[in-house]
Amino acid sequence: MLKTVAAFFCLFACAFVSANDSDMPKPCNSDRQYEAGVQIVNNEGKVSGRSGLIEGKMSYDADNERVATVGYNYHRGLHIRLLQIFGSNLAYVIFLSNNTCKASEMVFPLAPSGVPSTAMFVNSYLLGSMSHGFRVNQWLYTYKSLNKSDGDLEMKTWNGHYTDEGCIPIRYEIFKGNLAVPPSEREETLELFSIYFSNYKAGIADHSVFDVPANCPQESSDFLSKEEVMELFS
Q1: The whole model's pTM is what?
Q2: Do residues 172 and 67 make contact, with C-beta atoms less than 8 angstroms apart?
Q3: Whole-Å CA distances, 138 to 100, 101, 115, 120, 127
Q4: Quick one: what percent of the chain has pLDDT higher than 90?
Q5: pLDDT class for 175, splitting at 50, 70, 90?
């Protein structure tokens, strides 16, 4: 199913570009710091029959390469603060019920603050009705990310949906694999996670949300493995 959807994206984009090249939207810049309500779906667990959902509030800070999400993990029944410090490649999960903390190396790269200049335009659509809606543009961006398990670089694809006016994120997904090439030319793809946004607001009201508690593990020997991280969020 994923391959079919990706092929449709590519074919539609090619047809749109050739017919409407002068009208095609350009990549845009979003606020480098913002807050928003989010639903985060971990889809990597679908391979083993599991997936996870976190709903809460995200604080995104591209200038300092960090993201904090305070929310509720529905599948685990846990109130958490997920702190991702991309500059040091570390993530912390603080369990708010007892203030305990676990740490790990980052599993996913920092998502772009807007649409990268090299992103491929896929489609435009109207969210809402014809009389009460707004236009959203869909983009694909491929890049190589380090696979910590074997030290190799692996291709990933960011699939972002942003408003035409204001460059506000609506949702994005990260896939393992390159969706920007025809299915016959790429290896099997896998959707890793999706984020859906609401109540977007520029700026960050409380930067203490990024503070790392003193009781969080500091030694790599105490870190969770990638498998333990995925288990926690599935």
Answers
A1: 0.80
A2: no
A3: 39, 37, 9, 9, 12
A4: 48
A5: confident
